Amino acid sequence: MKLGAAAAGLAPASALAAQATDRRLGYAIVGLGGYADVILPRFAECRHSRVTALVSGSPEKARRYAAKYGVPERGLYTYETFDTIRDNPDVDIVYVILPNGMHHEYTLRAAAAGKHVMCEKPMANTAAEAEEMIAACRAAGRKLMIGYRCHFEAANREAMRIARSGEIGRPRVVTAEHGFTIGDPTQWRLNRALAGGGSMMDIGIYSLQAARYLTGEEPVEVMATESTDRSDPKFREVEDMINFQLRFPSGALANCVSSYGSNHNRFRVVGDKGWVDAEPATAYSGNRLRRLKDWRTEDHPVPEAPQNQFSAQLDHLSQCVMTGAEPIVPGEEGLRDMRIIEAIYLSARENRAVSL
Question: Is there a catalytic annotation at residue 143?
Answer without folding.
Answer: no
